[in-house]
Protein backbone atom coordinates (compact mmCIF):
# COMPACT_ATOMS: atom_id res chain seq x y z
CA UNK A 1 0.00 0.00 0.00
CA UNK A 2 1.22 3.47 -0.85
CA UNK A 3 0.15 6.85 0.38
CA UNK A 4 0.47 10.39 -0.96
CA UNK A 5 0.50 13.27 1.49
CA UNK A 6 -0.91 16.52 0.14
CA UNK A 7 -0.88 19.77 2.07
CA UNK A 8 -1.27 23.47 1.42
CA UNK A 9 -0.71 26.53 3.61
CA UNK A 10 -3.13 29.39 2.99
CA UNK A 11 -0.57 32.18 3.03
CA UNK A 12 0.05 35.33 1.01
CA UNK A 13 3.10 35.91 -1.13
CA UNK A 14 4.33 38.42 1.46
CA UNK A 15 4.12 35.83 4.25
CA UNK A 16 6.15 33.38 2.16
CA UNK A 17 9.15 35.68 2.48
CA UNK A 18 8.85 35.79 6.29
CA UNK A 19 9.16 32.06 6.98
CA UNK A 20 11.22 29.55 5.01
CA UNK A 21 9.55 26.84 2.93
CA UNK A 22 11.45 24.18 4.87
CA UNK A 23 10.10 25.46 8.20
CA UNK A 24 6.50 25.35 6.90
CA UNK A 25 7.07 21.84 5.53
CA UNK A 26 8.35 20.55 8.87
CA UNK A 27 5.43 22.14 10.75
CA UNK A 28 2.95 20.63 8.26
CA UNK A 29 4.43 17.16 8.69
CA UNK A 30 4.14 17.46 12.46
CA UNK A 31 0.44 18.38 12.16
CA UNK A 32 -0.12 15.54 9.69
CA UNK A 33 1.66 12.95 11.83
CA UNK A 34 -0.52 13.81 14.85
CA UNK A 35 -3.66 13.43 12.76
CA UNK A 36 -2.45 10.26 11.04
CA UNK A 37 -1.62 8.67 14.40
CA UNK A 38 -5.25 9.33 15.40
CA UNK A 39 -6.47 7.52 12.28
CA UNK A 40 -7.39 10.62 10.28
CA UNK A 41 -6.87 10.98 6.53
CA UNK A 42 -7.44 14.74 6.35
CA UNK A 43 -7.41 17.74 8.63
CA UNK A 44 -6.45 21.36 9.20
CA UNK A 45 -2.95 22.78 9.53
CA UNK A 46 -2.32 25.28 12.33
CA UNK A 47 0.90 26.99 13.46
CA UNK A 48 1.96 30.23 15.12
CA UNK A 49 5.40 31.63 14.27
CA UNK A 50 6.58 34.85 15.93
CA UNK A 51 2.99 35.86 16.64
CA UNK A 52 1.79 35.22 13.07
CA UNK A 53 -0.89 32.54 12.67
CA UNK A 54 -0.66 30.15 9.72
CA UNK A 55 -3.52 27.91 8.57
CA UNK A 56 -3.85 25.27 5.90
CA UNK A 57 -5.28 21.86 5.01
CA UNK A 58 -3.93 18.36 4.45
CA UNK A 59 -5.20 15.01 3.20
CA UNK A 60 -3.78 11.58 2.50
CA UNK A 61 -4.65 9.50 -0.57
CA UNK A 62 -4.16 5.80 0.18
CA UNK A 63 -3.37 3.01 -2.33
CA UNK A 64 -2.08 5.28 -5.06
CA UNK A 65 0.00 3.66 -7.77
CA UNK A 66 2.94 5.97 -7.19
CA UNK A 67 4.02 8.63 -4.78
CA UNK A 68 3.31 12.15 -5.98
CA UNK A 69 5.60 15.14 -6.07
CA UNK A 70 6.49 16.36 -2.59
CA UNK A 71 4.95 13.30 -0.95
CA UNK A 72 6.40 11.76 2.20
CA UNK A 73 5.56 8.37 3.76
CA UNK A 74 3.51 8.96 6.93
CA UNK A 75 5.86 6.82 9.02
CA UNK A 76 8.90 9.06 8.45
CA UNK A 77 10.22 10.62 11.66
CA UNK A 78 12.03 13.96 11.34
CA UNK A 79 14.27 13.64 14.36
CA UNK A 80 17.60 12.76 12.77
CA UNK A 81 20.66 14.31 14.45
CA UNK A 82 21.47 17.88 13.47
CA UNK A 83 25.10 18.79 12.64
CA UNK A 84 24.47 22.47 13.41
CA UNK A 85 26.17 22.75 16.80
CA UNK A 86 29.13 20.51 16.01
CA UNK A 87 29.70 22.26 12.70
CA UNK A 88 29.40 25.76 14.15
CA UNK A 89 31.96 25.00 16.84
CA UNK A 90 34.46 24.01 14.16
CA UNK A 91 35.09 27.76 14.02
CA UNK A 92 37.78 27.08 16.59
CA UNK A 93 39.84 25.41 13.83
CA UNK A 94 39.47 28.35 11.40
CA UNK A 95 42.49 30.62 11.45
CA UNK A 96 42.01 34.35 10.88
CA UNK A 97 44.56 36.35 8.91
CA UNK A 98 45.62 33.02 7.32
CA UNK A 99 48.19 34.47 4.90
CA UNK A 100 49.84 36.80 7.42
CA UNK A 101 52.58 35.79 9.84
CA UNK A 102 51.53 36.53 13.40
CA UNK A 103 53.85 36.99 16.39
CA UNK A 104 51.23 37.51 19.11
CA UNK A 105 49.45 34.19 18.67
CA UNK A 106 46.95 32.91 16.17
CA UNK A 107 43.41 34.26 16.04
CA UNK A 108 40.60 31.79 15.43
CA UNK A 109 37.17 32.67 14.07
CA UNK A 110 35.56 31.34 17.26
CA UNK A 111 37.79 33.50 19.48
CA UNK A 112 37.24 36.52 17.25
CA UNK A 113 33.46 35.98 17.35
CA UNK A 114 33.48 35.88 21.16
CA UNK A 115 35.46 39.14 21.21
CA UNK A 116 33.10 40.81 18.72
CA UNK A 117 30.06 39.76 20.78
CA UNK A 118 31.63 41.21 23.95
CA UNK A 119 32.73 44.45 22.25
CA UNK A 120 29.32 44.73 20.60
CA UNK A 121 27.55 44.23 23.93
CA UNK A 122 29.58 47.03 25.54
CA UNK A 123 28.90 49.34 22.58
CA UNK A 124 25.17 48.57 22.83
CA UNK A 125 25.18 49.31 26.57
CA UNK A 126 26.92 52.63 25.91
CA UNK A 127 24.40 53.47 23.17
CA UNK A 128 21.42 52.49 25.35
CA UNK A 129 22.79 54.64 28.19
CA UNK A 130 22.66 57.54 25.78
CA UNK A 131 19.09 56.92 24.64
CA UNK A 132 19.29 54.12 22.07
CA UNK A 133 17.24 50.94 22.37
CA UNK A 134 19.37 48.00 21.25
CA UNK A 135 18.02 44.49 21.86
CA UNK A 136 20.95 42.95 23.76
CA UNK A 137 19.88 39.39 22.89
CA UNK A 138 20.01 40.25 19.19
CA UNK A 139 23.37 42.00 19.63
CA UNK A 140 24.93 39.00 21.41
CA UNK A 141 23.44 36.45 19.01
CA UNK A 142 24.50 38.26 15.86
CA UNK A 143 27.90 39.13 17.29
CA UNK A 144 28.65 35.59 18.38
CA UNK A 145 27.51 34.03 15.10
CA UNK A 146 28.23 36.76 12.53
CA UNK A 147 30.94 34.63 10.86
CA UNK A 148 29.14 31.28 11.21
CA UNK A 149 29.06 30.72 7.44
CA UNK A 150 32.86 30.64 7.37
CA UNK A 151 32.90 27.01 8.50
CA UNK A 152 31.64 26.36 4.97
CA UNK A 153 33.12 29.33 3.06
CA UNK A 154 36.39 29.75 5.01
CA UNK A 155 37.81 33.07 6.15
CA UNK A 156 38.61 35.28 3.15
CA UNK A 157 40.31 38.65 3.65
CA UNK A 158 38.10 41.70 3.06
CA UNK A 159 40.45 43.24 0.45
CA UNK A 160 40.09 40.05 -1.59
CA UNK A 161 36.30 39.94 -1.20
CA UNK A 162 35.95 43.58 -2.20
CA UNK A 163 38.47 43.53 -5.05
CA UNK A 164 35.63 43.94 -7.58
CA UNK A 165 31.86 44.50 -7.41
CA UNK A 166 31.27 41.16 -9.17
CA UNK A 167 33.42 39.25 -6.68
CA UNK A 168 31.83 41.03 -3.71
CA UNK A 169 28.34 40.10 -4.95
CA UNK A 170 29.38 36.49 -5.56
CA UNK A 171 30.84 36.16 -2.06
CA UNK A 172 27.75 37.70 -0.49
CA UNK A 173 25.45 35.25 -2.30
CA UNK A 174 27.71 32.30 -1.47
CA UNK A 175 27.89 33.17 2.23
CA UNK A 176 24.13 33.77 2.49
CA UNK A 177 23.40 30.42 0.86
CA UNK A 178 25.87 28.63 3.15
CA UNK A 179 24.30 30.21 6.24
CA UNK A 180 20.76 29.37 5.07
CA UNK A 181 21.80 25.76 4.45
CA UNK A 182 23.27 25.49 7.94
CA UNK A 183 20.13 26.89 9.56
CA UNK A 184 17.99 24.39 7.66
CA UNK A 185 19.83 21.51 9.38
CA UNK A 186 18.19 22.59 12.66
CA UNK A 187 14.90 21.09 13.89
CA UNK A 188 12.05 23.15 12.45
CA UNK A 189 10.98 24.86 15.72
CA UNK A 190 14.52 26.25 16.17
CA UNK A 191 15.07 27.53 12.65
CA UNK A 192 13.01 30.71 12.83
CA UNK A 193 15.05 32.26 15.66
CA UNK A 194 18.34 31.78 13.83
CA UNK A 195 16.89 32.80 10.47
CA UNK A 196 15.53 36.04 11.94
CA UNK A 197 18.61 36.92 13.98
CA UNK A 198 21.26 35.93 11.40
CA UNK A 199 19.67 36.30 7.96
CA UNK A 200 17.58 39.37 8.78
CA UNK A 201 19.25 41.33 11.59
CA UNK A 202 18.03 44.86 12.18
CA UNK A 203 20.12 47.44 10.28
CA UNK A 204 21.25 49.11 13.51
CA UNK A 205 22.46 45.83 15.03
CA UNK A 206 24.17 44.84 11.79
CA UNK A 207 25.99 48.18 11.74
CA UNK A 208 26.93 47.93 15.43
CA UNK A 209 28.42 44.46 15.01
CA UNK A 210 30.29 45.66 11.92
CA UNK A 211 31.81 48.38 14.11
CA UNK A 212 32.73 45.80 16.74
CA UNK A 213 34.17 43.51 14.06
CA UNK A 214 36.39 46.28 12.71
CA UNK A 215 37.46 47.29 16.20
CA UNK A 216 38.55 43.75 17.06
CA UNK A 217 40.58 43.63 13.83
CA UNK A 218 42.14 46.98 14.81
CA UNK A 219 43.03 45.56 18.23
CA UNK A 220 44.75 42.56 16.64
CA UNK A 221 46.73 44.62 14.13
CA UNK A 222 47.72 47.06 16.87
CA UNK A 223 49.02 44.19 19.02
CA UNK A 224 51.09 42.91 16.11
CA UNK A 225 52.57 46.32 15.27
CA UNK A 226 53.45 47.03 18.90
CA UNK A 227 55.19 43.66 18.99
CA UNK A 228 57.35 44.73 16.04
CA UNK A 229 55.42 43.03 13.26
CA UNK A 230 54.70 46.11 11.14
CA UNK A 231 55.86 44.29 8.03
CA UNK A 232 52.77 42.08 8.09
CA UNK A 233 50.21 44.27 9.88
CA UNK A 234 51.35 47.88 9.33
CA UNK A 235 49.11 48.59 6.34
CA UNK A 236 46.15 46.81 7.95
CA UNK A 237 46.60 48.86 11.14
CA UNK A 238 46.67 52.16 9.23
CA UNK A 239 43.63 51.22 7.14
CA UNK A 240 41.62 50.05 10.18
CA UNK A 241 42.58 53.09 12.26
CA UNK A 242 41.29 55.35 9.48
CA UNK A 243 38.10 53.31 9.17
CA UNK A 244 37.40 53.48 12.90
CA UNK A 245 38.03 57.25 12.86
CA UNK A 246 35.55 57.65 9.99
CA UNK A 247 32.92 55.52 11.69
CA UNK A 248 33.15 57.41 14.99
CA UNK A 249 31.75 60.47 13.20
CA UNK A 250 28.36 58.78 12.73
CA UNK A 251 28.45 56.29 15.64
CA UNK A 252 28.97 58.11 18.93
CA UNK A 253 28.98 54.85 20.93
CA UNK A 254 32.06 53.73 18.96
CA UNK A 255 33.83 56.98 19.84
CA UNK A 256 32.95 56.60 23.54
CA UNK A 257 34.02 52.96 23.54
CA UNK A 258 37.40 53.88 22.04
CA UNK A 259 37.94 56.75 24.46
CA UNK A 260 37.01 54.59 27.46
CA UNK A 261 38.73 51.30 26.63
CA UNK A 262 41.10 51.84 23.70
CA UNK A 263 44.25 52.92 25.56
CA UNK A 264 44.28 49.89 27.85
CA UNK A 265 44.63 47.52 24.88
CA UNK A 266 48.27 48.67 24.71
CA UNK A 267 49.01 48.02 28.38
CA UNK A 268 51.05 45.10 29.68
CA UNK A 269 49.46 42.54 31.99
CA UNK A 270 51.18 44.17 34.99
CA UNK A 271 49.70 47.53 34.06
CA UNK A 272 46.25 46.02 33.67
CA UNK A 273 46.46 44.39 37.09
CA UNK A 274 47.82 47.57 38.68
CA UNK A 275 44.88 49.58 37.37
CA UNK A 276 42.31 46.96 38.40
CA UNK A 277 43.17 47.37 42.13
CA UNK A 278 43.32 43.58 42.58
What labels would you give this structure?
single chain; about 280 residues; mainly alpha; Hypothetical protein af1432; 2 domains; 3-stranded antiparallel sheet; HD/PDEase domain-containing protein; HD/PDEase_dom
List the helices and strands and how they pair.
Blueprint lengths: L2 E7 L3 H4 L4 H17 L4 E8 L2 E11 L21 H5 L20 H21 L6 H10 L4 H4 L4 H4 L3 H19 L4 H12 L3 H24 L3 H19 L3 H10 L7 H8 L2
Antiparallel strand pairs: 1-3, 2-3
Helix pairs in contact: 2-9, 4-5, 4-10, 4-12, 5-10, 8-9, 10-11, 11-12
Please tell me the total number of domains: 2
Number of strands: 3
Measured on Cα atoms, how large is the radius of gyration?
24 Å
Structural class: mainly alpha
The span between the termini is: 75 Å
Helix and strand sequence: EHHEEHHHHHHHHHHH
Architecture per CATH nomenclature, i.e. the level-2 architecture of the largest domain = Orthogonal Bundle
Range of helix content: 55-70%
Strand content: 5-15%
Tally of contiguous helical segments: 13
Summarize the structure.
This protein has 278 residues and is mostly helical.
Structural write-up:
This protein has about 280 residues and is mainly α. The chain folds into 2 domains: about 5-80, no CATH class; about 85-275, Orthogonal Bundle (Hypothetical protein af1432), CATH 1.10.3210.10. The protein is built from 13 helices and 3 strands. Strands 1-3-2 form a 3-stranded antiparallel beta sheet, with helices on one face.
Amino acid sequence: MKAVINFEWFISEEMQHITSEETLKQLALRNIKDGFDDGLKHGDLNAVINGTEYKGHWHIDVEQAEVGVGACPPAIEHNEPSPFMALSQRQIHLKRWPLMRSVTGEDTVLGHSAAVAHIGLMMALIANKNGANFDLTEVLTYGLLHDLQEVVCQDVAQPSKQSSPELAAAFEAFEKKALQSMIETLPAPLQDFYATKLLNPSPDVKNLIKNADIYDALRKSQDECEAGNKKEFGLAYTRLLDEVATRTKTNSYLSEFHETFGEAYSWSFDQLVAHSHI
